[in-house]
Amino acid sequence: MKKQILFTTFSLFFAFVAFAQDGFHKIGVGAEVGLPMGDFGDAYNMGFGATGKIYYGLNENANITGTLGYLRFGIDGDSNISGHMGMIPIMFGYHHDFDGFYVEPQVGVVALNSKVDMSNTGFGSFGGSYSSTEVSLSLGGGYTMGDWDFGLRYQIVNNANFLGVRVAYNFSI
Predict the structure, then answer these.
(1) Number of domains within the chain
(2) Could you tell me whether strands 126-145 and 148-156 are parallel, antiparallel, or unpaired per DSSP bridges?
(3) What span is annotated as the signal peptide, if there is one (predicted)?
(4) Among the listed residues 47, 36, 44, 37, the one whose alpha carbon sits nearest the alpha carbon of residue 81
């Protein structure tokens, strides 16, 4: 079922890009920092990554957006435990500009992949990995200054919620 959701999301994204080219007016490329929240914050450190965003203009102040990226969170463990969680967000949203300030709710899926290795446990070394695809929501906003975009959002991903900070540069197309 989760593979079907991922396939459907990818298909919708590419159909969106292919059939709606007349209204696309910019592409944003950004660096991200993710601050894990709740139980996720107890197990993982700050995450880092990058995202790309495409904007389809509905009018001067309103855009439909598509975002694709990668974030990596390191595990918060002692010297005997190492690992990470990788996230690939595939999100669609509505971006509304209010003279530089904006709001942008988003919905989509996030592909998760985690890996843990443990050594010197008294029973030898062992580890494992896990992958899943989760439905995700985010509520965010920010400020644009020229071609620069400074954003903040709360990303809800099952039990891996985080506060995301994004600095991006937008290119006109």
Answers:
(1) 1
(2) antiparallel
(3) 1-20
(4) 44
Determine contact, residues 32/159, Cβ cutoff 8 Å: no
pTM here is: 0.80
| Matching residue, tokens 């995301």 | 164
CA distances from 58 to 39, 65, 68, 91, 135 (A): 39, 10, 20, 18, 26
End-to-end CA distance of the chain: 36
CA atoms of 102 and 143, how far apart (whole Å): 6
The CA distance from 83 to 74, in Å, is: 6
CATH code of the domain covering residue 116: 2.40.160.20
Main-chain phi, psi angles of 59, to 5 degrees: -155, -170
pLDDT tens, per residue, the chain with 173 residues: 555 655 665 565 555 554 444 567 899 999 999 999 998 888 899 999 999 999 998 888 899 999 999 999 998 777 778 889 999 999 999 999 999 999 999 999 999 999 988 876 666 677 788 899 999 999 999 999 999 999 999 999 988 999 999 999 999 88
> How far is the CA of 99 from the CAs of 4, 7, 42, 84, 165, in angstroms?
39, 37, 38, 39, 20
